[in-house]
Sequence to fold (238 residues):
Amino acid sequence: MASPTDDERRHQWDKQGFVVFEDAITGDDLQRLQTSFDRCAAEAKDGWLEADARGNASPTYFDISNPFARDEWFVNLVDHPTYFPHLKAFADGDALFLGPQFRTVPPWPIAYTGWHPDVGHTAPLHMKVQIYVNDVPPRSGEFGYVPGSHKQDAGPFPRVIHSESMPGHRAFPAKAGTAILFNSYGWHTAMDNHTKTARKSIILIYEKRFEDRVNRDKFASVSNLCTTTERRRLFGLE
Fold:
């Protein structure tokens, strides 16, 4: 497990607010990820369509419900050795996992969300890892981030109609298996998807651990998979 280099910490994380891991998931693991993601999405699709018809779900993106219950292997992504040592280091050695989003973004001329931070600076350090399940070329709903926008004195940032109009932003097209670790104080979005292919990604959500934020019942269903003290602490089981 490789800890962040001085350049990754100071230039990428502290200054820019993100670190990109190309080939984070590869080979048999990537094939397993893609196959299982597609299977679980197919199983959950009818429920999403029914909820959408009732007005209880968005037609512009689709999340697989209860992904860990559908395939326990997904739990291994939470502390994957490619990116988790960096995340843990940025959390001063003590991170808390908050939850997953297994998300499909269908072709749509306007992104399902606009530019936004997830939390304000009064909240504990909030981080996400976004893993591309399929290849994500330019203009296909790729992740977008405004470098440096995670800093407390950054901004203000305009409310733009089109994602590509945000000043200073960077879009992250990349191949399947790429993981992007980013500071959620920063302004980010999914770019517009102008292709005919849905964008599939997994979003893992974390924050710096504080005891009053721990819910020991939240991940009780996967406690049998948390056999080390570190993983149990990460999942808030102790």
